[in-house]
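Follow-up to my post from last week.
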Amino acid sequence: MNLPWNLILFYLFAGVLVLAALGVISVRNSVHAALLLVLTFFTSAALWLLMQAEFLALALVLVYVGAVMVLFLFVVMMLDINTEQLREGYIRYLPVGILVAAVMLAEMLLLIGVKAMAIPAPLDPGGTSNTAWLGNALFSQFLLPFETAAVILTVAVIAAIMLTLRKRSNTRYQNPSAQVAVRARDRIRIVKMESSKMENSTVKEAPTP
Amino acid sequence: MFDWIHTHLLDFLPPLGLVIWLVLCILAIAVPVILAVALYVWWERKVLGWMHVRMGPNSVGPAGLLQTFADVFKLLLKEVLVPQKSSRLLFVLAPLIALVPAFAAWAVIPFDEKLVLADINAGLLYLLAMTSMGVYGIILAGWASNSKYAFLGAMRSAAQVVSYEIAMGMALVGVLICAGSLNLSDIVRAQEGHYGLLNWFWLPLLPLFVIYFVSGVAETNRAPFDVAEGESEIVAGFHVEYSGAPFAIFFLTEYANMILISFLAATLFMGGWLSPIQNLINPDLGEWGNFFLAWIWKGGWQWLFAKAFAFAFLYLWFRAAFPRYRYDQIMRLGWKVFIPIAIVWIMVAGCLVYFGIVGPAGAAA
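User reply:
Got it. Predicted complex:
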């Protein structure tokens, strides 16, 4: 029993990956499509694990599956998409779509090179722990590009927030520091009042509150 | 004995033997977790009872210990209702999607020196990846139920979990900086020192420790952050349409996650299996000859379990003591309080390590 387990697992995951990716663009229900995209990410993470790129694989699951797709689902679930309407122009735009797809495929093949289509041996630059290796490389050799990318992303985040921020007049804000600073006398006024007496009352003096 | 089983299984059909061995290891973790959940539910009801000045479960079995098992059998034998206009496949799939990450995360927890299923280098990253996937079960359950209350619960949960994951991840960055490793066993070993419990990360990383545990409570949708269920507003939230066995699975998932967070807080900030008096007081135990005392004195799984139990108890204490947060206040706490504090304390942690006060260099001092 000396089967090439790595190869078998690779084809298994690759098959699931391709099917899931096809499902993303073909199923009618948008929530199902989003879930199939989750499956696509997950299987590609499994493929990366097979190539011993553990950091990339786990980061993919953490960032894309754990955060991005959750927000994606969050939005998709609240949309009420009429799929019939979306499908109206399907045939009309098909030639343009095929053209774009063909150009992209050609570009990718040029970039990767057909030779690289063969399964490469797992790259192992960092020994057993390529997470530590990657960290060292990012924070020493590639510090400037890394920080630049971080700054660009932060700018993008702030820009996105600013674009969507609307000041509405009827929004009610909570001011916690004001709430904490409140004292009892700001909210309650204690008023001394004479108690109403009955005419034949035996009580001489009303108890002060 | 375990080594004997291990080697013999590996000799017999190498790939198959390995698979059998791994399945046995997984069962050795999963079955105790399920039992712990049952006992934890009983303990929760007892503690809540005492805090409310009542008895809690006391009829089934001694001190009501078998109450949870009775409940489990009741749930498993009940009819499973599937709403007619629900998304059937996802409705059935959702509890399982919630359950898998809750159990998968246990693989990297080191119970003792060398006693860990998968001693991987990116252990902490794996944990973050697994805990971040748990929210899918909740979202899908809410959506597939095709019910307004369930959907509201799912939406609340999605936003809450994603928000608190950031604070949680940042709290873990502080631990990473101090330990210099993503491997959980290495993180525990980095907390070893001459001052016993004063060497653990809870002291230099106190704000991160608090942030981590509170975020953990929010991640597991427990009181006071249980707006995803919010009985007083949305009945039972995301699992309002679930009954019988699927409901039991959601229940199991929630409690398994709580125990997981307790174990993680103990491992990452409270020195895992280390004994709090290790190297602090060193009596000559050999002369005393007291096996039991030596067992307590030394570090080991018993200490990890005791610490995890303390955190698990804290969960119940929170539930009995605090009223539910309002939704916008939860968001404010996560984004405007925890994340800024965590960012500042990451810098502090960096300085602490740089000047050799904490971390591998500081442990020797």
